[in-house]
Specification:
Layout: E1 3-9, E2 14-20, E3 25-29, H1 36-48, E4 52-57, H2 63-66, H3 69-76, E5 80-82, H4 87-99, E6 111-113, E7 119-122, E8 125-131, E9 140-144, E10 149-153, E11 156-157, E12 160-161, H5 171-182, E13 190-193, E14 199-200, H6 201-207, H7 212-219
Parallel strand pairs: 3-4, 4-5, 5-6, 10-13
Antiparallel strand pairs: 1-2, 2-3, 7-8, 8-9, 9-10, 11-12, 13-14
Length: 220
């Protein structure tokens, strides 16, 4: 059984997640730790819980989600897992950091590319990869069917959706990703987003203003 630990890092208030199991294996998803104290916070949690990091995962590679990739790679010797379409996004991230006045050193290790239907396995626990582009061209979500939760990056928020005005973003693609990949999950599925508080699939079906017209059409 997985424990979900959330950290809020960097000036953009990004959610970094550490998922750990009873055997103390863990994966680190979207390490957004920018400042030294944020990196120490992440490291101290892993040390205090006596966790053994096994995976470094990116839902997508906008700068606020990748600030800590290099730190995690160097500290735990973890190869970055991401969708192939996010590689160019990651390579552009330092330039975006300069534009936001947040310079940083990018990850420079190898890559392991994930695709729809792949599975991240830690002992008896599994995360299914869902391809959910639209906010970013290679956005993926990590779905834990056994515990009814999904780590969705910036695809779906409580009462909102990810922005689509950045390079590679597309509104219609994002809406289709939400409808075809997330809204088919059980209503009780918890959505852990890349920013803000958690929500559920059922709540967003009923109350998300960006999806209401589509939910209404399906009920006609």
């Amino acid at each position: 059984m997985l424990t979900v630990k959330q950290f809020i890092f960097n000036p953009v208030q990004e959610n970094t997640y550490v998922l750990s199991n009873e055997k103390d294996a863990c994966c680190i998803i979207d390490p957004g730790c920018y400042f030294g104290n944020e990196r120490r916070t992440l490291e101290e949690y892993i040390q205090e819980e006596e966790l053994s990091p096994k995976f470094l995962l990116n839902t997508h590679c906008h700068l606020d989600h990748v600030f800590g990739n290099k730190f995690v790679f160097e500290t735990y010797n973890l190869t970055l897992h991401l969708h192939e379409k996010e590689r160019q996004v990651l390579e552009r991230a330092p330039a975006a950091g300069l534009q936001w006045n947040m310079p940083f050193e990018n990850y420079r290790g190898d890559y392991i590319f994930l695709e729809e239907g792949d599975t991240i396995t830690m002992d008896d626990d599994a995360l299914q990869v869902l391809f959910t582009p639209g906010h970013s061209p290679g956005s993926i979500s990590f779905y834990c069917k056994a515990q009814n939760f999904v780590i969705g990056g910036d695809v779906l928020f409580r009462m909102s959706i990810g922005r689509t005005d950045l390079p590679g973003g597309d509104f219609d693609t994002l809406i289709n990703s939400i409808r075809q990949k997330l809204f088919v999950l059980p209503d009780e599925t918890i959505v852990y987003p890349g920013h803000g508080e958690a929500t559920t699939i059922g709540f967003e079906k009923k109350h998300n203003p960006f999806l209401q017209q589509y939910s209404h059409q399906e009920n006609l």
